[in-house]
Amino acid sequence: MKLINNISYFIIINGIYDIISALTILNYLKMPNIKSIRLSLITNNTEPESLLERFIAYSILANGIIRIMNGMTLHEQSSQVIVAGTYFLEAFIMANEYYYYKSVDFQKSMFLICFSLYLGYLSIINYFN
Asked: With helix as H, strand as E and coil as C, how does the chain read?
């Protein structure tokens, strides 16, 4: 149970970071370093504050809210599946953007894919026990 609590805290912190990042991209918060870290992944965006950036922010915001709300109840199997799903979807999106569209930076996307798969695995680890 202690492992699931530690994972739960990490997922909640990651969700808070996602929300802060999204609000920064949407210009509700002024944290240029966080904004540039999140948006530096995209290689083909020529328009600052474009519709693309806003939609990225909306998806990051949705993931953050899902991760915080379900991270609090990660001991329940349904929450584990939902949180894992957000991470696996994020990994799929990054893989698709890199391999099919070539629109994201290789190193950053590979890091994000591995990180997302790992967190998805960690969040669902107790599902089968």
From this structure: CHHHHHHHHHHHHHHHHHHHHHHHHCCCCCCHHHHHHHHCCECCCCCCCCHHHHHHHHHHHHHHHHHHHHHCCCCCHHHHHHHHHHHHHHHHHHHHHHHHHCCECHHHHHHHHHHHHHHHHHHHCCCCC
